[in-house]
Amino acid sequence: MGYLSDMANWKADEVELNEKRSSIETRLQQVRQSDQEDMAKARQAETDAATAYAQAVAWGDVDGEKAANAEAQKAAKSLTAAVEHHRRQKLLITALEQELVTIDMHITEAQKEHAKIEKEAAHLANMVLEEKWNETAKALLETGGKLWAARNLISRDPVALMKLDIPEQGEHFGSWTWRELLKRSHQHSLLDLLAG
């Protein structure tokens, strides 16, 4: 049962990695969106301050001009801070993207290992089932040999058994036919038939 636990472990690793990937992807989207919004707000504030300044100058509003100039300076400082914040966010974004690449590599590895173990387990199951098939076929042949012998003893032709063709599984590509039944029938006496 080592295959089952190994497959379960690799599948659990894949699920855990996908959860981490999803979490990082969500965080990455949040960082990108926040960064874009912060930059857009800072630029808009600078544009609004410049527009207010231009309108104040156009209307000759000295107090409005002073207030707009102060707002423009404040907006310029905010934009400078936003640009620096944007630079740091780009570093975070790059690091998160790299982490996604690393996690994707681990997910691929987990999937490959799971598939490899699954294939090995399927090969083992196939071998075991081929052996079981052959054992069951041999038991059927033994019973068929006895039936052939019994029919010979009562002078009944075993015509239906002559259609027998059971493919042997595994490394041998033969099949068991009625000839195998005929051969086995010679090994049984009436006492054998009555005993078994």
Q: Summarize this, please?
A:
By secondary structure, the chain is mainly alpha-helical.
What does it look like?
Helix content is 84%, strand content 3%. It is mostly helical and 196 residues long. It has two domains: 2-127; 132-195, no CATH class. The mean pLDDT is 93.
Poorly predicted spans: none
Determine the N-to-C terminus distance.
37 Å
Structural class: mainly alpha
How are helices and strands ordered from N to C? Answer: HHEEHH
Question: Total number of β-strand segments?
Answer: 2
Helix percent reads over 70%
List keywords for this structure.
single chain; mainly alpha; about 85% helix; about 5% strand; about 200 residues
Write the layout of secondary structure elements.
Layout: H1 2-59, H2 62-153, E1 165-167, E2 175-177, H3 178-185, H4 190-195
Antiparallel strand pairs: 1-2
Helix pairs in contact: 1-2, 2-3
